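Protein modeling request. Please complete all fields; requests missing the sequence field cannot be processed.
Requester role: graduate student
Desired output: 3D structure, token encoding
Chains: 1
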Amino acid sequence: MTALALDIGGTKMTAAVVGDDGRPGEALEVPTPETDVWKACSDLLDAVAVGSDIERVGIACAGPVNTISGSVAPINIPEWKDGFGLGEAVRKHFPDASTTVAMDGGCAALGEHKFGAAQGVDDVLSLVVSTGIGGGLVLGGEIVHGRSGNAGHIGHIVVPGSTTPCTCGGLGCVETVSSGPSAVRWAQEQGWEGSTGAELARSAQDGDVVAITTLQRAGVALGQAIASAAALVDVNLVVIGGGFAQAGPPLWDPIKESAALHARLKFLDGLEIVPAQLGGVGTLTGAAVLATSSPVRGK
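Delivered output (299 residues):
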């Protein structure tokens, strides 16, 4: 069996051949372009698959997704925002392969469950805190897709006190407070002069009051969203990854304090919030698990 794993995000795309152990091999990475996204994607797949007879393809994509039709409409990929038939395009590209499409947050949860911080835990909520805020669920040891494929999309839980317009069209989503770009914008409005989430984290660690306040604000909102989601789906392990999640104690301390303040139901005793272990390949790893678990076409 030869399988491919593909992870498509708003900033970059990665792909790899999947090893016999279910893990992706050495990955190739390219920036996600503003136009001709599918061409860049298909070129990447061809480069990874050269010389291989591909039988299965597992795809993780920024959401929303539709796991039934295989279409995607990611709000952080403008060319595809109104919908793109990703599953159909991949099936045409590899007509003899079985293709599975899932939301990136769900794949991140699946990867951590199989190989990372959630090994041995069958019920877990995963967050990816980066350019946006993604999420996914594994319940009973299985990835949860929901009616359309978007279960666990925690970035669009509304948090108290926020009315900031979100790219989804709603108001007050946790993504408008706690994603890297949203936090940077808010800090700049308070007079901070940096330009990236990494700079914001360094400023906070160096004692900059505005940066500390910004990360406190972001962490409190994330803790509120986590407590709400954990109560809704009955999990006691939350795994957080993504670039902005590397901001350290100025972000993590308020996350945990806020979640503890709000997660007061008895069945949430012992709620753990831990860093992801798989880093930047976590979502690709989940896509690899999808690829190796999907049925081979015609068999």
